[in-house]
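sorry for the late reply, my laptop died twice this morning and i had to redo everyting from scratch. anyway the thing you sent over, i finally got around to it. pasting the sequence first so we're on the same page, its 595 residues, then the predicted structure underneath. double check i copied it right bc i was rushing
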Amino acid sequence: MEFDARLLRPAGGFGRRARLLAAASWAPNAALALGFFAGLLLAAPPAHRCRPDPALLPPALRNLSGRALLNASVPRGPAGWSRCLLYRYAPGAAGPNRTGPCTRGWDYELPAAGLRSSPVTQWDLVCSDRWKVPLEQTTYLLGWLGGCIALGLACDRFGRRATFVFSLVLAVPLGIGVALAVNYLMLLSLRLLLGAALAGTFLSLYVARLELCDPPHRLMVVMVAGFFWVAGKLLLPGLAVLCRQWRLLQGVVTLTLALLATCWGCPSLFPESPRWLLATRQLEKGRKGLRALAEGNGVTLEDEFYSQEHLLAELECDLVPLPCYHTLGEVFSTRVIWRNGLILGFTAFIGSGIRHCFTRNLAPYRPQFYFSYFLLAALEVAACLFLCLTVNRFGRRPILLLCTILTGIASLLLLALTQYLLNWIILTLSVVGIACSQAVTMLSIFFASEVLPTVVRGAWLGLIMAASFVGKAAGPIMDIQNNRGFFLHHVVFASFAILSVLSIMLLPESKGKGLPESLQDGESQRRPPLFRSSRRRDHLPLLSPRSAGQACEARDYAHLVTATKRMLRSHRRTPPRDRQLLPEPAPGGDPQEET
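ok and here's the structure:
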């Protein structure tokens, strides 16, 4: 089925209604970004030191206060007061002879990332409990991973709209629960479920937005949605400054999700994808969706366009089919779809995982939280702009190949020469690596959404996004281990980046092509040649491939064969007395010359 050429274009293509729906799909990205990045602010560790404990001091020093009490209780080094140690005094000793852990909690320098309170300060997640902060971040990313897989399957079974509404409605009470969490374990479990719900919302929105567009507008619509994602990320620190308390900030984020569920739950702002309905053989619902799209685009078509016979001809079916759904087991038995999904999942994993190797070099710069936060947002905007300007011009595969090569080169240079390079060179290589790795991740997901067929797009795209979240989780996992094994982590991801360059060569090119609808369409994709041959070839009109502009295409021929078979079957069912006998050709004559 050629949905873009035979159904979407006559219905107005990317007309007024389609443009309004695409614009309406951008705003939710800002709200989802608030939910995704709020964890960074909640987990930002403020500067802290042990609270002095007079009980540990000798009797002569217990009446001290202020600076004198700090000097007698807390060790001080070149970096400032010790964060996790207090002096210990032996009986009768005039000075300290050892150090020990804090006994009366910690004093925090607030606000941290705009917040005067956070889970870190409320439950003292520092020093010996510091590992709980990256554990919470890892758990949250695992929630996004699980949500992408489970709700991606739901996208293909129950529809894009149903999954979007279900995930969004589920996210609202979970967000309220996070704001009211009474202990660390409750926060951990609720954040895990909240991440899964937000992942389903993001994935279903991404797929529905893509399936709404025709080939020339797909990239731009998806990249503008990326700009709204960054806008939500930039808005978050301002909300933190206004809210001050982490529970209030979480409540405001949940309120935006509730408003989203109220407004975008309306079918007029988020209808079901007609492309998915027809690809899964739901003719009646697909006809209604297609008619609503055409009328919204200001196009009036004859009833024959929406007729059952016309849709059956486009679906290449003889009888009215039942809804047809596919499982991942069927996809694993394919060859081309499986290979494309595996390669793009691998590149998405590398692009997300190798970013930690670059962001680690931003830690020495002040202000520590805001510098890296806003720099990463700016580089994400730069990556989006770069993709907007190059991908439609040069193609998906060459740009993905270029960004992967630049990521690998920057990673190898930092891996081998960090101790010999100046700080500004290290920062420059890190910035280039972050921007290129961000472009690799975004383009891998977008590329995958174009080469995966509609009937399994939600499930497979969920797997590829899940692979990218596995890569994102590499950073918090390294923090749990206090960055032990970072060198091995860097070596592995740099090697993977070089290896992925070879695998990208096996991908097809999707620039300017319609989205594949069925498994057969996905299997028919072939990669273009790496090098164009300059040798002259014999011109054989019957064997030469047909251009896209010619009237007789392979698809047209298939439709002609189907229509001819249907006509012959109906001719056979006609009673003999109603048939019109054809004149037999004269002996030795040419049948084509008979009049």
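The beta strands are 48-50, 76-77, 80-81, 85-88, 98-101, 106-108.
thats about all i looked at so far, will dig more tmrw
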